[in-house]
Structures are given as structure tokens and as C-alpha cells.
Amino acid sequence: MKIYTKKGDTGQTQIYADKMVRMAKSADVLDCYGTLDELNAHVGLLLANQQDPSILAQKETLLNAQKNLFQIGFAISAKTSLIEQDVQILEGAIDTMQANLPVQTHFILPGGHPVAAQAHVCRTVTRRAERRMVALLEEHPVPEICIGYLNRLSDYFFVLARSINFSHQIHEQNV
Predict the structure, then answer these.
(1) Which ranges in 2-113 belong to alpha helices (H)?
(2) For domain 26-167, which CATH number applies: 3.30.70.100, 3.40.50.300, 1.20.1200.10, 2.70.170.10?
(3) Residue-wise pLDDT tens digits, 128-168
């Protein structure tokens, strides 16, 4: 199969819902898809740091997050297999990591160890994806589970960044 079709050269593309729909590449739904795709690539970059013990410990959760980001994309145009248990898995990972961290008493500047900084990038792109998805609600039925999952995923990346910095003994910079 060729990767290029030339059908998008005029600024139009198609999505697959219950039926194939052609639309402008500038459509809000495609902006949301693009943000989810960008986030998935950032998570892939985070996963590329498997020499980091924190990433290695979270490998399964991060791989599941990548798969679930595809499910969220599917939910925008058709159906999703995302379930409440997927949100609960993130909550369990957050709780486990947070149990080993010092109590947070201030806002924290993103950064620290390079892998933690990448987790913060994932967090901010997740927040953007969530905003894009909420904006779609007026035109597209999006299951609530998708927005809840993205909300929890951004929390997960925040705690993951803190956990990585803590494991590398890097002091968090407070605001």
C-alpha cells in the first residue's frame, strides 16, 4: 500500500465514522485528532527513555495510554472500547507513585531531569487535547469517558514527572 494518495493535496481529507466523511483539514475534529497524535508521539518519546527506572516501571501504563489515545480518536468518529477501568488504572498508577513522593505544598516549575521534562510536555499536550475535545462537544458526541481519561492522564504525567525527579534526587523548583 502506498503511503500517499494525493487525495489530501487540495486541503480535504476523510474520516471514518458510521460512513466516510470528507472535510477540510482545518476542521476542529481534525485539530483534535492531530493533538491526540502529537500527544501519542510525545508519549513514544517518553517511552524511548527505557534506561530510566521510572519509565521502565511505568512501561505498561504508558503503552496502554498510547493505545487508549487511539481509542479516544476512534470515539470522536465512531466508537471506543475505552472503559472506566482504564481511568482507574491511571488512578492506581498515580496513587502508587504519589505514595513515595514528598507532599506537594507549592506550584512546581516544569523541568528537572530531561525525562521528567518530557513527562511535563506530555502533560501540557494532554491538557490541550482535552481542551480541543471539550470544544468538539457542541458538534460531535464524545463519550464522557474520553474527557475523563484525558483529565486523569494529565494528572498521571504530572506525578510521573515528580516521581522521575525524585528518583534522580533532583529538587523541584517551586513557583
Answers:
(1) 28-47, 53-57, 59-77, 84-98
(2) 1.20.1200.10
(3) 999 999 998 888 888 899 999 999 999 999 999 999 999 99
